[in-house]
Amino acid sequence: MLRSIESLTGYKIQAKDGDIGKVNEFLFDDETWTIRYLVVDTGSWLSGRKVLLSPLDTISTPDWASQKFPVGLTKEQVKKSPDINVDKPVSRQHQLDLHRYYGWPVYWPSVTPTGVPLVTPTPSQIAREKAAAAEEKGDPHLRSTKEVIGYNINATDGEIGHVEDFIVDDVPWVIRYMVVDTGNWWPGRKVLVAPAWIIKVSWSDDLVDVDTSKESIKNSPEYNPSAPINKEYEVRLYDFYGRPKYWL
């Protein structure tokens, strides 16, 4: 099901033996637009420490009614996890430590010398990747949803508004849309733009360029945050822009 990032922020994380904290933000891969980690604020339990959890590897069936994400971990496991300062760019080194600690598979490309993909990296591969990661200040493709909200968005012929929210598919944990508030240009209107329609993102300039005109945005199916996004709406949206549908 498609859900807004804003609506998921604040969900409680429930370990096997009690609550861990609440979702503070999400980190996504800007190449695949997949949510890689939940940033969990542990509150008073761990003196305000923030931890990273992979939704694909830890979350079982969410309790939507109670706004809880059950995870197959104990509080002690989370407490002893690698301490990562999530207020700074998260390096590949830190991610390697985290994935090794929990036994999660790595999501970034790992290959043998013959080019065969690895599901789990070998010790020598881990050593090579850690050596390379030591040179990084932060993973250049790991982005914060909280940071990107507010980015300006340009159509092919001018500015159309700013990023207000994201819409994520809660099964594969992939971002399907950015929610665009058209602001002063077209007051009171919100529209959706899929990552596939983005020409480029200038991360240093807080700017997103999309491959469509202002007129198309103005006439596109309007997004209503209070209404669920169903397949009928998505079909209308994709047909309006004449874009290939991600589910086909």
Write the layout of secondary structure elements.
Blueprint: E1 2-4, H1 5-8, E2 12-15, E3 18-29, E4 34-41, E5 50-53, H2 55-58, E6 68-70, H3 75-79, H4 92-102, H5 123-133, E7 142-144, H6 145-148, E8 152-155, E9 158-169, E10 174-181, E11 190-193, E12 198-202, E13 207-210, H7 214-219, H8 231-241
Parallel strand pairs: 2-6, 8-13
Antiparallel strand pairs: 1-9, 2-3, 3-4, 3-7, 4-5, 8-9, 9-10, 10-11, 12-13
Supply database-style keywords.
SH3 type barrels; globular; 2 domains; alpha+beta; Photosynthetic Reaction Center, Chain H, domain 2; 7-stranded mixed beta sheet; 248 residues
Structure description:
- By secondary structure, the chain is of the alpha+beta class.
- It contains 8 helices and 13 strands.
- Strands 1, 8, 9, 10, 11, 12 and 13 form a 7-stranded mixed beta sheet that branches. Strands 2, 3, 4, 5, 6 and 7 form a 6-stranded mixed beta sheet that branches.
- The two termini are 16 Å apart.
Secondary-structure element pattern, one letter each: EHEEEEHEHHHEHEEEEEEHH
Mean pLDDT: 90
Name given to the CATH homologous superfamily of the largest domain: PRC-barrel domain
CATH topology of the largest domain: SH3 type barrels
The second-level CATH architecture of the largest domain is: Roll
Helix % is 10-25%
**Low-confidence region ranges:** 111-119
Largest sheet: 7 strands, mixed
What is the general shape?
globular
In DSSP terms (H or I, runs of 4 or more residues), the helix count works out at: 8
CATH structural class of the largest domain: Mainly Beta
Task: List how many beta strands DSSP finds.
Answer: 13
Radius of gyration: 19 Å
